[in-house]
Structures are given as structure tokens and as C-alpha cells.
Design a protein that fits this description.
There is one protein chain. With about 55 residues, the protein is mainly alpha-helical. The chain contains 2 helices and no strands. The longest helix is centred in the first third of the chain and has 29 residues, at about 5-30.
Length: about 55
């Protein structure tokens, strides 16, 4: 493979990883309910309880 092609595919891989992580953090983790929060989503728990932290 030529150097420009390697650079291009390397960039695509990095961009895909960044987009995937952004999607998971922005959408999935904010709406998925958790048992530790009384089956509330993290967004709902935070809006109701402010900055309250759960014990680990």
C-alpha cells in the first residue's frame, strides 16, 4: 500500500473510533437506566439529585 493510502486509512480508523465513542457517551450512557440509580437514566438521576455522587 502506498504511503498516502496508509495515511488516509489511518485517519478513517481514528475518525471512526472518535465518532463511536462520542455516540456512546452522548446517547447510550445518558439514556440507559442503571440499577445503582434506582433504574433512572444518568441524565434523570443527575437532574433530580444535582451533583450527588454514588458510593462505589
Amino acid at each position: 500500500m502506498t504511503k498516502p493510502a496508509e495515511n488516509f486509512f489511518s485517519y478513517l480508523k481514528m475518525a471512526a473510533q472518535t465518532d463511536t465513542l462520542a455516540h456512546i457517551e452522548a446517547l447510550h450512557n445518558n439514556i440507559r437506566p442503571h440499577s445503582a440509580t434506582g433504574w433512572q437514566s444518568p441524565a434523570a438521576f443527575t437532574s433530580y439529585n444535582g451533583n450527588l455522587q454514588l458510593d462505589s
